[in-house]
Amino acid sequence: MKLTLGLVALFLGFAQLTLGQTKDRTSVVSEGETARAFSTNTYAVLGATSQQEALVRSQIQTMQPAVLPLRVVFVPHWKYVDNTRVFHLHVPTGYTSALFTHLPSRTVFIDADRYFDESLGYWLAHELGHLVTNSADEHEADKAAREFRRRLERLAQQGPTSKQLGGSE
Ligand SMILES: [Zn+2]
Questions:
Q1: C-alpha 92 – ligand 1 centre gap (Å)
Q2: At what angle do helices 138-157 and 50-63 cross, to 10 degrees?
Q3: Is 0.85 topped by the overall pTM?
């Protein structure tokens, strides 16, 4: 009994220490980056319903990319197809053609008619991968996307809170 309490105290002390260190490291080393990553309202979400906008913002906040998009634009399907043609952009057909990123303007386009709720985060991670690597290379984007997807999964595993972020119905 005494031993158990001792271990618990030890564990709590350790957890506190670890948390403290994490906090210090964050605020000292990457202050600018953290500030940027957390100011998720600095980009525009256009053409979205309030539910879509809330989902996109919560997912991007969870993924904490070092580089944020300047705008995320939901466009009707016909216009989306037109945009991809006009911009001559890579549409990642191997993945999905419902999202694409225009790097020079840091704009992520989402086909509003092919909107796919929870799985949006998975594809959004790929587009953020293009942004943070500033590269049109699919492999580079996917590599960067892995960490974003991990962060999304971690949040989903925490349970109930992910429901309110996902904004189900
Ligand atoms: Zn891509």
A1: 5
A2: 100
A3: no
